[in-house]
Amino acid sequence: MGTLIYEMITSLDGYTADADGNFGWNAPDEELHRFVGEASRGVGTYLYGRRMYETMVYWETAHTLPDQPEFVVEWARQWQAADKVVYSTTLESVSSERTRLERTFDPDAVRELKASAGHDLTVDGPALAASALRAGLVDEVGQYIAPVVVGGGTRFLPDDLRLDLELVREHRFGNGVVYVHYRVRQESTR
Question: Gene3D superfamilies per the record (predicted)?
C-alpha cells in the first residue's frame, strides 16, 4: 500500500503563492533541491491539479536545456520516471509521458490506487490537496517553510479542515527554510 503525501514550499504565513499568484520567492536553492529529490525517491505517482501540472511539466524537458547542473538533471529524470495523474475539466491534453488526464477527482479511485501501489504517491496543488485531505486520503503532510511573509494568496491548507498530526521529521536549511513533516492521525480526518 502506498502512502499519500502532501507537501509544498510555503511562506511563513502559510501561502504557496502570493495574492498576485507569484511564487518565485519559494524557488529552492541547490541544498533544498537535493533534499526534495532525495525525499521524493520513493514516489512513483504524482497527483496534480491543472495549474500545478502546468508548472511541473517543465521537468519533462528540463534535462535538455544547456548547462543544467547535475542535481537538476537528476530531478528531471526522477520526475519523468514517475506516473502522473492530472485532474482537470479544462485541460485538453497532457504533454508529458507516463501521464493520464482525469476529468474529476474520485476519492474511491484514489483509495484503490493507494491500496494497489507499491510506492508512495503525492497530491500536489492546494486545491486538489484540499479535496484529498477532506476525503481522509492524505497520510502525511510536509511543509517547507520559507523565511518570507506574503500577507495573502493561495493557502497551503484549507480553512475548514481539522487534522491531528504527529511530527516525524524536521530539518533546517542554510537558506533559512525549515522543513516539518507530519503523519496524519487518521482518526482525526473526518
Answer: Dihydrofolate Reductase, subunit A
